[in-house]
Write the structure tokens for this entry.
Amino acid sequence: MSVIDILTRVDAICNKYDKYDVEKQKDLNVSGDDAFPRLYAAVNADIEAALQVSSISLKSNGFVSCFKISVCLLI
């Protein structure tokens, strides 16, 4: 198998699974019928929210921290 064959196969695989590249789809602003990008966006938003809550809890101590986390979770 030559290098050209390998590159051709890699290119074919990349083209086949291009629709699952979330960053590329976001850049193109494409909305399709595929549920994967919607699910990925929802999970990504949940992760970002959890990171925000954790950064708030690191900045505060005790009761204030618990109160801020509770408020963030209610929003």
